[in-house]
Amino acid sequence: MKVLFIARWFPEGGNYSGIFIKEHALAVSKFCEVAVIYGERRKWQKERYWFSFSIEDGLRILRFTYREIPFFLFPPYPSYVNGVVLGFEKFLSEGFKPDIVHANEYRTGIPAYIIKKRYGIPYVLTEHSTHFAQKTIDKKRIKRAQVGMENAALVLPVSNSLKEDILSYGIKGIFKIVPNAVSDDFYYNPEMRNTSGIKKILCVAAMRPTKNIPNLINACKVIHSIRQDWSLNIIGEGWKMGEYKEMVHNFSLDEFIHFLGGKQKPEIAKMMQTSDFFVLPSNYETFGVVLIEALACGLPVVATRVGGVPEIINDTNGILVEPDNPEELAKAMLYMMDNSDRYDRQKISLDAKNKYSYDVIGEKLISIYEKIISYPRVPKG
Predict the structure, then answer these.
(1) Residue 39 to residues 6, 34, 79, Cα–Cα distance (Å)
(2) Is 269 in the same domain as 301?
């Protein structure tokens, strides 16, 4: 079987944007051939399109950029759609004809639908976007989502919460929940446990409003008034970083809260393995890949009760609190400082692997593809 992923975002170099799409592709690639198309616009590009093939982690990647034309002359989305279709045709000319297309995010549904109409290749569409929960999608984009989702063989939201958000827009389709996947970089290692006496807390989140880092900083202000045997490491980058650092400084918490910037996945895994618990203070989460990464390392979690988070976190692996409530968040974190060792970390890790590993998610997606195309499985290799 051959599968073509159309990615709305895709990581490159140290940029982890769209890593969750790559992880689905890697999970599927354990069982069949996978290729990926990813495109983005470029200012001042002379060529209308520029294409580049590469092999990354066993995936055949076709990246393209397209010339950004002033919006009043020509909106960028049709150029993107055309670029994806051209990329698909380049794969055909290279001898790669997919049995099924796997679109990722609603804006990739239109080119997937065009490919279906022209070439008779079915497609599924995985949705990740928080825009449905935030109610920030305008009528034009809703129409695109409707066309892409309602003509897909299956729509695959990463959580039931996201499915309900999509349905709230009146979009129809056949839905099946397929969660995100966690890589083998994340695993329980008891030899890495923290024994310093200082409670090590970890947060991994982009420095943008949806992650609500100020909620966490305000909770830490409450905690600091009660005890000082803790440190919080925050991994992530974003345009709000300066504002959050200033907030920490104004609260005189510089010795306790440390902004570490972006880190590679193996580094994040090691920091999880040496932390006492994980915290995520978001206002919106369609799923929360960092949550399953923390669980795979055996970390108990404190997280906000938003989006798909309650589908992941329960009494056996953490504590849920209401969003944007620093007092409640502080109370949960204080409890976790004294009780994180009561959680069965090995079981937390095993449960996460049994639900979200590449093998499990890859098998789930392959089974979906097979049912759609009635294609008998042939072992890879």
Answers:
(1) 9, 17, 10
(2) yes
Q: What per-residue string of b and e applies to 200-224 under the rule 16 or more CB within 10 Å gives b?
A: bbbbbbbbeeebbbbbbbbbbbbbb
Residues 143 and 231 in one domain: no
User: For the packed helices 345-356 and 289-296, what is the interaxial angle rounded to 10 degrees?
Assistant: 130
Domain interval for residue 253: 190-355
Helix, strand, coil percentages for the chain (3-state, nearest 5): 40, 20, 35
DSSP code for 3? E
> In tens digits, what is the pLDDT along the chain, a chain of 381 residues?
999 999 999 988 767 788 999 999 999 999 999 999 999 988 778 888 999 999 999 999 999 999 877 654 556 889 999 999 999 999 999 999 999 999 999 999 999 999 999 999 999 999 999 999 999 999 999 999 999 999 999 999 999 999 999 999 999 999 999 999 999 999 999 999 998 999 999 999 999 999 999 999 999 999 999 999 999 999 999 999 999 999 999 999 999 999 999 999 999 999 999 999 999 999 999 999 999 999 999 999 999 999 999 999 999 999 999 999 999 999 999 999 999 999 999 999 999 999 999 999 999 999 999 999 985 545 555
Residue 12, CB-side half-sphere exposure with 13 Å CA sphere: 15
Residues 157, 221, single domain; the answer is no
Is residue 210 located within the same domain as residue 148? no
Dihedral of CA 159/104/117/119: which sign? negative
Whole-angstrom distance, CA of residue 216 vs CA of residue 279: 8
Domain match, 163 and 140 both: yes
CATH for 167: 3.40.50.2000
User: In terms of DSSP bridges, do strands 59-67 and 199-204 run parallel, antiparallel, or are they unpaired?
Assistant: unpaired
Q: Using alpha carbons only, what angle is made at residue 152 by residues 146 and 158, rounded to the nearest 5 degrees?
A: 85
Closest CA to 67 of 78, 53, 59, 54: 78
Give the pairing type, strands 59-67 and 49-56. Answer: antiparallel
